[in-house]
Task: structure prediction
Amino acid sequence: MMTDGTVFKTEEITKQYGMGDTLVHALRGVSLEIPKGELVVLLGPSGSGKSTFLNIIGGLDQPTSGDVHFKGEALAAMSDRELTYFRREHVGFVFQSYNLVPSLTALENVELITDIGVNPMPAKEAMRAVGLTDRLNHFPSQLSGGEQQRVAIARAIAKRPEVLLCDEPTGALDSETGILVLEALQNVNRTYGTTTIIITHNAAIADVADRVIYFADGRVSKVVKNEKPKDIHEIGW
Amino acid sequence: MVTALNKKLLRDLWNIKGQLVAIIFVMATGIMAFVLSFGVVDSLELGRDVYYDRFQFGDVFANAKRVPQGVKKQIQQIEGVAQVETRVTFGTIIQVDGMDEPATGRLISIPDNRDPLLNNLYLMKGRMLRPDEENGVLAGEAFVKAHGFDLGDRVTMIINGHKRELSIVGVVLSPEYVYSLAPGAMFPDDKRFGVFWMSLRALEAAVNMDGAFNDVSLRLSRDANVEDVKSELDRILKPYGGLISFDRAEQMSNWFVQNELTQLRTMGYFAPTIFLAVAAFLINVVMTRQVATQRVQIGMLKAVGYRDMEIAMHFLKMVMVIVVVGSVIGLVGGIWLGSGLLNMYAQYFHFPYMSYSYSYDVMILAVGFCALAATGGTWIAMRQAATLPPAEAMREEAPTEFKRTILERLNIDQFFSFLSRIILRQLERRPIRAFLSALGVGFALSILVFAFFMEDSMDYMMDVQYDVSQREDLMLSFVEPRHIKALEEIRLMPGVMNVEPIRSVPVELRHQYLSKRTSIMGIMPDPDLHRVLDQNLQQVAITKGGFILSKKLAEILNVKVGDVVIADVLEERRPVLELPVTAIYEEFMGLGAIMDIERLNAYLNEGPVVSGAAVMVDPNYNGPLYKNIKEIPSIIGMANMSRMREIFEELMDQNMLQMMAVYIIFAGLIAFGVIYNTARIAFSERSRELASLRVLGLTRFEVAYILFGELAAVVFVAIPLGIYIGYGMVAGMVASLDTELFRMPLVINSDTYGFAVIIVLVSALFSFYLVWRQVDNIDLVAAQKGVE
Result:
């Protein structure tokens, strides 16, 4: 994998929710660099701060303190409008709960993104990339969970984002379906060179990543660089 | 190319089509009622103004006994008078073949060699009179239509005691008789009162008025002082038996037209404004909730890079669909129904020109109001969803902080089951939302009460007026006051069961700087027929020397019991009387002032005379009795009370009640719309929670109980709330419908409340049923996964 530059750089970011007695420290100072084009896996128990971290670098949430840079630009300095454009042009999201629009077909859910993208790929191409060409005109309710998640991935990559942020994309899926989804993600990462960050509980996935970042109690406990990431089919669940 | 977001819009709309139809209908209804009422009133006012202007309706009018032609010059010289037209007018009895009852009429002269300068006629059919034409008349359209007369038909009239056969040569309309009312009548009865125009010379000859006139109309210059002109005219006419002059505002036909228009305008403001407000409220609530249910999707759209404006536009488009479709239906329907209603009114105001004119201001106002309400609701909900960071919006709403309910804290919760406690907590957790739902349903109930009320009030008014108060069958009036012995003649006629004397005198009543023209009616101290009632329907005693005023008149003059009112008598010797007010009574129509007849006659110094009689009749003898009455030349007017009631009821059926029937339908549909939406939204807000309970093992019934228990509680609160609001609306309406012509009694039958509540309950049950089918179909697995 090429690593000619850094996509995200965070410096001592913290995030607190609530007040007084109910104050929760979701992040207690996270400093990281994520190089371009890598497939990064975030591992850690529930409440360790992975999702908060992902939301903050994706511009969905603001840190309480600290800086986030996307290719040298500080996200904290961006207005709401600039953040929107940042997400619109550079970031693709995949959520655990798919978040497809139930009243739109699979293809139309992807078009929702290509409609507003700067240089999107054709929606059908995105569907092909996730192996769902035979489900274009199905509504979410007619798709299985794995299929829905792959539509969500197609939706996320259709805008040709520089980074793809996935919050437990396989969390709601059985292992076989999960493999299909991960395969789609790895495929996207390899074909388009999209920096891909995946949150998971599943340590086995770590073997396919270029880099594994372990979270514990709002901090990064260790970072492991994988010199020879495996192919998705080589790993056992 | 339709964007994906627009496809979502269309499908979302399709998905909630039931609700959508309900909202659109509610909105269309509000706009329709608004546009319809305003359009009709505007059109009528325009029709009247154009008519008055083109046909030179006079500004000031006066009648006298007999004024020599020479006096006309004096009148012309009054400062501010632009034009003078003098006429001869005379009351007449008309005999119509096949009609037992006598009809009365008014003959009015028209100049022989020129058009009238004032109060010109609009010829509908036939021709105008030829100079000196002796046996031809022009007939007012209303009478001709009521009897199905045609040109060339002959009418028999008793003019000044002589029978004359006259042939109708033309059918006309006059600005003076837009409303053709017999003297003393409350409503137009076109079958029994007609207006005719005759050649001046022919009429002069018939009633011995050669070289004289008894009727003057004036047109004033723009800068004239109406009051000055009137008093100068009175001064000039006084020696010739002149009655006090009056201006347009006091002219009978115009006064009625004005009152009628005021009434229509009030109704046109009131009901539709309420409808529109309820519609707007509903749209606001529904849109707020509709958007709230899309919170997660809004979060997702934001997360993937849609701007706030784009998302806002998405929802505004949804609103716009409602607003546009609702407005189009409302406007088209309003104009269509409005022109239909205008045609109905056209039959009864007789304006020659009437076209439906719709004002864009009104339309813009109605549509704007609804659009604003809808957009406002959407906007607020949108902002709430959009200001959340997307990460948070996409999460399901965090469990709200639940408190133990007041009931629990008071330790009486053991009386409630586990399920009931869920309901109670739900209501207590969101008291504002529960209250708004109850308010919506309450509004629905209140407009039903409001719509039903009109009929209650009319019925009550009629019952009181014609069964309890005026129990006479006929009210006869004489050409001139006659000795009380004349009543003996009537008493002996076939079928007459009771006769009471009536003495009516035109007066101007004054108190402080206030004055009002009306007439004082003298009646027997303890009458059986023509009775005076207080607001509890108890007879008000007319003591010797007593003088009692109707509540409205007392209000106009600012008089209390004990105050002294000055009465300028407007006929004969014109004495000025000082009368202490002894009581105030309730009356729904007109401006009554009543006195003991003996006392009145004493004041007038005329001996025991009567100007009319209240008569109770055995209905089996109507035919022979009417025949007798027709033969008495001194009887100039006969008002038949049951006929008046019929006419009034017909009038109400034709006009107000038809409008009310429409309003009742509208109100019913709005009620259903509100309730169905409330139930539907409650369901979609909680479907996931309900599904979880099902998964945990609750039966369908238990789950339905939680949902419907909450709705039932809302309806339960809504009923008293709605009754209260409805009463308030009715009271507001009654207060603003308070005209000189008539007042609506604030009477709401328990039936009305009952019907309104039943309609609301049936709507609620039907809505429950529709929603129940959806509870039945909850897809447990899908709901758990969060697929909607």
